[in-house]
Design a protein that fits this description.
The chain has 228 residues and is of the alpha/beta class. The chain has nine helices and six strands, in the order βαααααβαβααβαββ. Strand 2, helix 6 and strand 3 form a beta-alpha-beta unit.
Length: 228
């Protein structure tokens, strides 16, 4: 792989930017600010799979951005048996988006691996996240300067795994698929999506829970040194 790869594309959330940790800290802050009486751990246990479900629906064009932002909170509060008025859910939804990108926790090894790769490859981001939030996350966590291009789904009008977003990103980067590698946490969106247009792939399985596939897999970002 090392000889032909010239461009390395990363997903952002759950791959470089530690979404679960930053999200938990965000909820802790906005629940205190808005006097929401709920056990944070119990809420997050219920919320995380609901959020995952909504993002899958969003990728598949089955829910809108606003429906995602409202629905995941409404279902999570219902799931822990806490009654919250719709007006407050909408307020919390806005506060969550505004506060989330103020936290800057990255996965272990992020700076080390980006420093290792930056002199050897052109580095890029492909993300399904919302444009305004993703820009802030990269700036706040001090990684924006590593990337030549950033492609997000709002620029293209489709989301990973749609081939259009990968082809758009390749064109923006002036890269060929057979010279490009995609690294991401989501098998369907990142890995199968990139593989289907001829890119090489590495699955970042940070929970070490998905080894039932034939794609290259790492459980820590520093393991990329063995591949690149």
């Amino acid at each position: 792989m090392k000889s032909q790869i010239k461009h390395v594309f990363f997903d952002l959330d759950h791959t470089l930017w530690d979404f679960d940790k930053n999200s938990g800290l965000t909820f802790e802050k906005i629940f205190i600010q808005n006097k929401i009486d709920v056990d944070l751990h119990d809420f997050l246990v219920v919320y995380e799979p609901i959020n995952f479900k909504y993002w899958k629906l969003y990728r598949e064009e089955k829910v809108t951005k606003s429906a995602l932002r409202y629905g995941r909170l409404k279902e999570a509060f219902d799931g822990v048996g806490v009654a919250v008025e719709d007006d407050l859910i909408h307020l919390l939804s806005e506060a969550y988006i505004n506060q989330l990108s103020t936290f800057n926790h990255l996965f272990e090894g992020t700076f080390e691996i980006l420093d290792y790769l930056k002199g050897k490859y052109q580095l890029h981001i492909i993300t399904n996240g919302f444009e305004e939030a993703q820009e802030k996350k990269m700036v706040t966590s001090n990684i924006k300067q590593y990337f030549q291009t950033v492609t997000n789904s709002e620029m293209v009008g489709v989301k990973k795994p749609n081939p259009k977003i990968f082809n758009f990103a390749l064109e923006l980067a002036k890269a060929k698929a057979n010279e490009s590698l995609m690294i991401g946490d989501n098998i369907e969106a990142d890995i199968e999506g990139a593989h289907n247009i001829g890119m090489d792939t590495i699955h970042f399985d940070y929970k070490d829970a998905q080894n039932n596939h034939n794609f290259k897999r790492i459980t820590n970002l520093k393991m990329l040194i063995n591949h690149l």
